[in-house]
Design brief:
alpha+beta, about 210 residues, about 10% strand, four-stranded antiparallel sheet, globular
Length: about 210
């Protein structure tokens, strides 16, 4: 009877440079290597991914602001994507015209921040990267997983658009509750938590994530 090995030989998983996770990380690194720009940037053509950073004095975000000041820009407050219109219909390919999808999305965010009564546009910066449309969702997912931005993972709704006509029975987002001002949001059903409750959650979330940095 064969003796059972005390130390089985380990099986090493081969490295696959084309693994989707590695590709996503490469795109994310390319985005982080881009120069910081004001929000909104100058108009340009392209679709891709972006990161928005906060450097202001809003009390709930002071931990986040601290790691982004002095040109560090360590952690975004929000990460997003902008795909070409054709890609939304499943028409990905070399012939898809990206148009100004990325610039338009950043412009939408600019409007939301300007409408918020307790935010200042001058406290925000951005990075963006034009990406082949097939890699855009993957790169966004990698960035969210890596940084867990507070406006993606806790205070949700920043990227929302105005609901269609007659659809005011939906619930207001936590972002609109905490940063009131978007005209269409006031007609939605109230968000159940108070501003203080949301602030306490945000402060704890950021302290847990960034307190040691």
């Amino acid at each position: 009877m064969a003796k059972k090995a005390d130390n089985p030989i380990p099986v090493l998983q081969p490295y696959n440079p084309l693994d989707k996770r590695h590709l996503g990380e490469q795109v994310a690194e390319a985005l982080l290597a881009r120069d910081i720009q004001p929000l909104p940037p100058e108009k340009f053509i392209g679709a891709g991914v972006y990161a928005i950073y906060y450097i202001g004095e809003f009390d709930a975000y002071k931990t986040l602001s601290a790691v982004n000041k002095n040109n560090q820009y360590t952690c975004p407050i929000y990460v997003g994507k902008a795909v070409p219109k054709g890609a939304r219909k499943g028409g990905q390919g070399d012939n898809v015209d990206p148009g100004t999808a990325l610039y338009d999305r950043l412009s939408d965010h600019t409007k939301s921040i300007k409408e918020a009564k307790n935010l200042n546009l001058s406290d925000f910066r951005c990075r963006y990267l034009a990406v082949d449309d097939i890699w855009i969702p993957l790169a966004e997912s990698m960035m969210i997983e890596r940084f867990k931005p507070v406006w993606n993972c806790l205070l949700e709704g920043f990227g929302n658009h105005a609901p269609g006509s007659g659809r005011t029975n939906g619930k207001m987002s936590s972002w609109d509750r905490f940063h009131p001002g978007r005209s269409w949001a006031k007609d939605l059903q109230p968000f159940p938590k108070s501003v203080k409750e949301l602030k306490d959650e945000i402060v704890k979330y950021l302290n847990d994530a960034l307190g040691d940095e």
